[in-house]
Amino acid sequence: MSHQKENKKLWGGRFSQTSSSIMERIGESISFDSRLYKQDIQGSLVHAGNLHRIGILSDAELEGIETGLKQILQEFEEDKFSFHIELEDIHMHIEARLTELIGDAGKKLHTGRSRNDQIAQDIRLYISDEVNSIQKLLYSLLETFVTQAESNIDVFLPGYTHLQVAQPVRVSHYLLSYFWAFYRDWQQFQFTLQGNNVLVLGSGALAGVNYPSDRQFMQEGLGLLDISPNSIDAVSHRDNILNFLFASSQLMLHASRLCEEIILYASQEFSFIKLPDFLTTGSSIMPQKKNPDIAELIRGKSARVVSNLQHMMVLLKGLPLAYNRDLQEDKIALFDTVDQVKISLEGLQSMIQDMQFIPDNTTNSLEKGFATATDLADYLVNDCQIPFREAHELVGKLVSKCVEQDYTLASIPEAIRKEITPFFTGTAYEKAIALDTSTDKKLSYGSTSRKNQESQITLAKSTLEKIKD
After folding, report:
1. Up-side HSE of residue 360: CA atoms within 13 Å toward CB?
2. 3-class DSSP state for residue 156?
3. pLDDT: is 275 or 283 the higher one?
4. Which residue, 129, 69, 77, is CA-closest to 100?
5. Residue among 360, 395, 438, 460 at smallest CA distance from 169
6. I need a labelling partner for 284 at 20 to 30 A (CA). Which of 155, 302, 331, 333 fits?
7. What is the pLDDT of residues 231-271, one digit of tens each?
C-alpha cells in the first residue's frame, strides 16, 4: 500500500508518508475524548489570553480566536460539529476548525503549548466539573437519608452480625449509618478536588516552553488553586485521576453494600421494605415477580468502577517519564466511571426516597431472632444482682426453651419462664425485652437510643448546612 500522499496532519511536517489505516484507527481518540470539548475550549481561551499578554497575538488575532472558539462551542452544543478520524483527537479537531474559520491566526493558538500539557489540563477541568456534579447528587442523597431517618425514628429493625439477628436498632440508626458513609465519600471527592485544581499549562511537552508564559495569569483565569512546580511531573502523572477513581470506587462499595441489603430486605423471606412498582421490573415468564433491578444493576456497576481503578493503576505502573501514548487510555476508565457513578446515585436517591419500611415484619423478625436477649441478661445483672456469666446462662436456657417449643421471648408462657428463674416474671421481664427499652438503654454517644438518634439527626442536618452549595 502506498502512503506517498501529502501529509495533512497538524504534526505532519516531519513525515513524507500519510498514516496507514491501522495507524489512524488505533491512534484516534476522538471517538471518546470529544466530551472534553468544553474544557479544551475553556483552556484554549485562557491560553490565548496568555499569548496576547506576552505579545504573541495581536488584539485582532485574540478577538478572532475568541470569536472562533465561541462559535465552535456553539457548534458542539447544537450537535453540528463534524468529526474526522484523521484529526485524531479533540485538540486537533478544534484547532483545525478554528483555522478553517479565522485563517492563519488559528495556527498561532498552539504556540507555547503541547498536546501533553493541553490534555492534562483538559482532564483536570473535566474532573472538577464532574466532581461538582457528583457532589450535588451526593448532597441530595444525604438529604434523603435524613428525611427518611426522621420519618422512621420509631420503627425498629434487626441489626445483624454474621447476617444473624443481633440487636434491635431504630431504622433511623440504620439509615444514618449510610448517611455518614456517603458523607465520607463527599469528603473524599473534596480531597480529589484539592489535588486536581492545579495549572499544568505552560509545562509544554515535558521541559517547559520557550516563551515567558504568565502561568499565574492562566491559573487565575481558570480559577485553579495552584500551579504545578515541575513540568515533567505535570505532564506524566495521573494522580488526580487515581484520586477520582478511588473516591468513586469507595462510593460504589458503599452503594453496592446498601443495594445488597435493599435486595435482601425487599425479598419475600425478609419483607422489611417495599419498593414502588415504578422502581421495579417483572419477569417475562413468572407473573408474580417484582424484581429490584435498580439495586442489582448498581451492585453490578460497582464492579465496573472498581475495575476502572485497577485499569488505571495497571496502566501507570510501568510507564517511564514523561508522557507516553499509553495515557490516551486513561480517559476511557475516567469517562465510564463518571457515567456509572452519576446514574447509580440517581438510582439510590430514588430507591431511598420511595422505599417503605414494614414495621410488623421487622418486629416479627426481631422477636423470632431473640434480639433482646442481651438486654434480658443485663436486666438480671443490673436489677437482680446476678453475675453476668450466670445471667448469660439463664437467658441461654430460656432461648433454648423458646426454640424447642416455638416461642419467642414475648410469647413464652410465664410458667415456663419461672421454672428457669423467678426473675423471668412480671412487668420487669416484659420491660426488659421491649424493643424501645432495648434501644433506649444504649446510652453511649452515637448509639441507637431515641435521644442519641435525635442528636445524630441534628448533627447530620448541620453537616449538610456546612457543605451546602
Report:
1. 1
2. strand
3. 275
4. 69
5. 438
6. 302
7. 999 999 999 999 999 999 999 999 999 999 999 999 999 99
- Does the predicted model carry a pTM greater than 0.90? yes
Q: Which three cell numbers stand for residue 256?
A: 453496592
Among all chains, which residue has been given the C-alpha cell 418486629?
363
Phi, psi dihedrals of residue 189, rounded to the nearest 5°: -70, -30
Residue environment code for 166-179, b if the CB has 16+ CB neighbours within 10 A, otherwise e: ebbbbbbbbbbbbb
Longest alpha-carbon distance in the chain: 102
Q: What CA–CA distance (Å, rounded) separates 362 from 343?
A: 30
Instruction: Return the sign of the alpha-carbon dihedral for residues 36, 42, 46, 47.
Output: positive
* Alpha carbon distance 211, 225 (integer Å): 23
Q: How many CB atoms lie within 10 A of CB 180?
A: 15
191-202, pLDDT tens digit by residue? 999 999 999 999
Contact of 130 with 343, CB cutoff 8 Å: no
* DSSP bridge partners of 199: 227
Amino acid at 55: G
Q: Are 454 and 440 in contact (CB under 8 A)?
A: no
Render the burial of 435-455: b for 16+ CB within 10 Å, e for the rest: beebbbbbeeeebbbbebbee
User: Of 20, 58, 267, 283, which is the active-site residue?
Assistant: 283
Cβ atoms of residues 319 and 236 within 8 Å: yes
How many CB atoms are located within 10 Å of the residue 81 CB?
Answer: 16
Of 297, 274, 426, 429, nearest to 357 (Cα)?
A: 274
The end-to-end CA distance of the chain, in Å, is 59
CA dist 240 and 117 (Å) reads 14
CA distances from 467 to 131, 136, 187, 403 (A): 14, 10, 10, 50
110: annotated active-site residue: no
What is the DSSP secondary-structure string of 20-53?
PHHHHHHH--HHHHGGGHHHHHHHHHHHHHHHHH
Reading the block at residue 410, the C-alpha cell is 414475648
Please give the grid coordinates belonging to residue 452: 442519641
HSE-CB at 18 with a 13 A cutoff on CA atoms is: 13
Q: Which residues pair with 160 in a beta bridge?
A: 165
Q: Which of 2, 82, 162, 444 is catalytic?
A: 162
Give, for 274, the enclosing helix (H) or strand (E). Answer: strand 273-274
Reported as a single tens digit per residue, the pLDDT across 417-442 is 999 999 999 999 999 999 999 999 99
Contact 281, 291 (CB under 8 A): yes
Q: How wide is the angle at C-alpha 154 spanned by C-alphas 149 and 155, nearest 5°?
A: 80
283 is catalytic: yes
pLDDT band at 18, cuts 50/70/90? confident
DSSP E strand boundaries for 51-163:
156-161
Residue owning grid cell 487565575: 220
